[in-house]
């Protein structure tokens, strides 16, 4: 990329976990190959696909930057993410799901953000729909990242395709610890408690929506709401939480009101009484 504002070109490990995404994975791989930033490796960990994924990926292995590993047994989504990270050699790790795409300039802006702000461990796509200034990357201090998440429900809510991590920081918090849909945010909260965050310009990736995705499957409302609440409580009352006591209590109050609202919506609007009360009862388990 011309006119780089950073001096180094560190290795970026792009981590592509996959399971039966043969109809999408070729486009995902080719989007990486089109990157303007060329110092990368692509590590593909296949969680026992039964479709044509293996044959399709092998067509790309002449590019020595691309490495393919097929698991002996199914690990599940987040254990497979951790395995991919364990194979990474880069200073930075960038997850790209095998049904998503990254634009040619994507790696450049992520590397730029983390190189300019070494105190940050996460580069994340901005979610500002109406920014007040046109300036990226933007450093967000650890405390402010927590405030933005808990008070405005923003910043740390984007999935791994919209982020890049410093590998040493990822390893320091032992990667993903969850197995549920909110494990992405759980990881972000662990990192943001210890390190700053850098916002980069939005829209450097294409997030494909289709019916096979985990979050598109029905009957996930209860699990997601409860796990998000539990993650928030654990983060707020962890000794590493960067918020002061007043802000922590304020954040907890906001979370309680939010989960009550979700539960009441299921009871009143959807007529799902059992589901609604199941969500609300978790307020008593702190």
Question: What is the second-level CATH architecture of the largest domain?
Answer: Alpha-Beta Complex
Rounded mean pLDDT is: 89
Strand content: 15-25%
Q: Please tally the β strands and state the result.
A: 10
The secondary-structure element order is EHEHEHEEHEEHEHHEEHHH
Helix content: 40-55%
CATH topology of the largest domain: Spore Coat Polysaccharide Biosynthesis Protein SpsA, Chain A
Q: Report the top-level CATH class of the largest domain.
A: Alpha Beta
Distance between the ends: 49 Å
Main pleated-sheet profile: 8 strands, mixed
Keywords: Transferase
GO molecular function: hexosyltransferase activity
Protein name: Glycosyltransferase family 2 protein
Organism: Gelidibacter salicanalis
Topology:
Layout lengths: L11 E7 L3 H12 L6 E7 L6 H6 L7 E5 L6 H10 L5 E4 L5 E2 L3 H11 L3 E6 L12 E3 L1 H11 L10 E4 H6 L10 H12 L1 E5 L4 E2 L14 H16 L8 H25 L3 H8 L6
Parallel strand pairs: 1-2, 1-4, 2-3, 6-9
Antiparallel strand pairs: 4-8, 5-10, 6-8, 7-9
Task: Please provide a written account of the structure.
The structure is a single chain. The protein is an alpha/beta fold and about 290 residues long. It folds into 2 domains: about 10-215, Spore Coat Polysaccharide Biosynthesis Protein SpsA, Chain A (Alpha-Beta Complex), CATH 3.90.550.10; about 220-285. The chain is about 40% helix and about 15% strand. Strands 3-2-1-4-8-6-9-7 form an 8-stranded mixed sheet, with helices on both faces. β2 (about 40-45), α2 (about 55-60) and β3 (about 65-70) form a beta-alpha-beta unit. The longest helix is centred in the last third of the chain and has 25 residues, at about 245-270. It comes from Gelidibacter salicanalis. One of its GO terms (molecular function) is hexosyltransferase activity. This is Glycosyltransferase family 2 protein.
């Amino acid at each position: 990329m011309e006119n780089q504002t950073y001096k180094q070109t560190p290795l970026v490990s792009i981590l592509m976990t996959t399971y039966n995404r043969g109809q999408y994975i070729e486009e995902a791989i080719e989007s990486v190959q089109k990157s303007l930033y060329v110092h990368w490796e692509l590590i593909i960990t296949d969680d026992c696909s039964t479709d044509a994924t293996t044959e399709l990926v092998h067509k790309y292995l002449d590019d020595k930057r691309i490495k393919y590993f097929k698991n002996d047994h199914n690990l599940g989504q987040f254990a497979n993410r951790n395995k991919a990270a364990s194979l990474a050699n880069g200073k930075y790790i960038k997850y790209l799901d095998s049904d998503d795409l990254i634009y040619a300039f994507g790696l450049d802006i992520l590397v730029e953000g983390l190189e300019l702000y070494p105190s940050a461990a996460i580069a994340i796509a901005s979610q500002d729909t109406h920014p007040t200034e046109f300036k990226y990357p933007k450093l967000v201090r650890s405390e402010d990242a927590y405030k933005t998440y808990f008070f405005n429900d923003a910043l740390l809510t984007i999935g791994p395709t919209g982020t890049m991590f410093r590998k040493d920081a990822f390893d320091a918090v032992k990667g993903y610890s969850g197995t549920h849909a909110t494990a992405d945010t759980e990881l972000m909260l662990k990192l943001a408690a210890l390190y700053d965050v850098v916002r980069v310009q939005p829209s450097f990736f294409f997030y494909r929506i289709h019916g096979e995705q985990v979050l598109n499957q029905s009957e996930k409302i209860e699990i997601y709401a409860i796990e998000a609440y539990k993650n928030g409580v654990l983060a707020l009352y962890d000794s590493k939480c960067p918020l002061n006591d007043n802000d922590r209590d304020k954040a907890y109050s906001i979370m309680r009101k939010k989960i009550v609202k979700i539960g009441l919506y299921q009871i009143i609007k959807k007529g799902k009484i059992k589901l609604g009360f199941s969500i609300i009862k978790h307020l008593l388990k702190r």
